[in-house]
């Protein structure tokens, strides 16, 4: 099934905020990438992997592409619009959901029911592929903990405001700072320790000799001997 027919099915009887819903496309693409890599995802893992994908894109000088509006919710970064997209995709028959037998909290697994083309750009799919390969085998709890360690979530927790919008650009600034610090360390290591400065001793002795008379007179005046 192509993305055009996919969207025709999903949007039937429903109103989306955009003509081509980027979050819908991102969820479908993530599930396709996960299937191709042999990963099984539940709802929490979908949310956290999409968040990490946006973060990865921003860190590397790009822009967030999933269409999610990330806020600090009860279990880390989340956009409630994911529920809407999930329900629409299930209703259309494009994905299926089932109880996750490994989840003690009633999580549901999501997987493709149709063999669709991944509806994102090659660049975005590359980011998704990298994130799924690196983190797709983590549990939902592990992904949640990882998300809490990211710069936007650390700042949100520092501010102490649940529901606050997450500043993904903070991750880019942290990466730039870390790269700058690493370059400084590398240059310092190349220079090696400074043990001497040839010629500086002679210069200091000449300067002291030139000012000796001035210092002598100043001392005599201070002692009242002049």
Walk me through this protein's architecture.
The chain has 226 residues and is mainly α. Helix content is 57%, strand content 8%. The protein contains 10 helices and 5 strands; from the N terminus they run ααβαββαββαααααα. The protein has helices at 3-10, 22-36, 43-59, 81-92, 122-135, 140-148, 151-159, 169-191, 200-210, 212-222, and strands at residues 41-42, 71-73, 76-78, 95-99, 108-112. The longest helix has 23 residues, at 169-191. The N and C termini lie far apart (104 Å).
| Spatial separation of the terminal alpha carbons | 104 Å
> How many E strands?
5
Separate helix tally: 10
Sheet/helix structural class: mainly alpha
Q: What's the helix-strand series? A: HHEHEEHEEHHHHHH
- Overall mean pLDDT stands at 81
Uncertain segments are 11-19
**Spatial order of the strands forming the largest sheet:** 1-5-4
Radius of gyration: 30 Å
Mass-distribution shape? elongated
Taking the sheet with the most strands, its summary is:
3 strands, antiparallel
- Taken as a percent bin, the fraction of beta residues is 5-15%
As a percent range, the share of helical residues equals 55-70%
Name the features.
8% strand; 5 strands; two-stranded antiparallel sheet; 57% helix; three-stranded antiparallel beta sheet; 226 residues; single chain; 10 helices; elongated; mainly alpha
Describe the secondary-structure layout.
Elements (H helix, E strand, L loop, with lengths): L2 H8 L11 H15 L4 E2 H17 L11 E3 L2 E3 L2 H12 L2 E5 L8 E5 L9 H14 L4 H9 L2 H9 L9 H23 L8 H11 L1 H11 L4
Antiparallel strand pairs: 1-5, 2-3, 4-5
Helix pairs in contact: 2-5, 3-5, 3-6
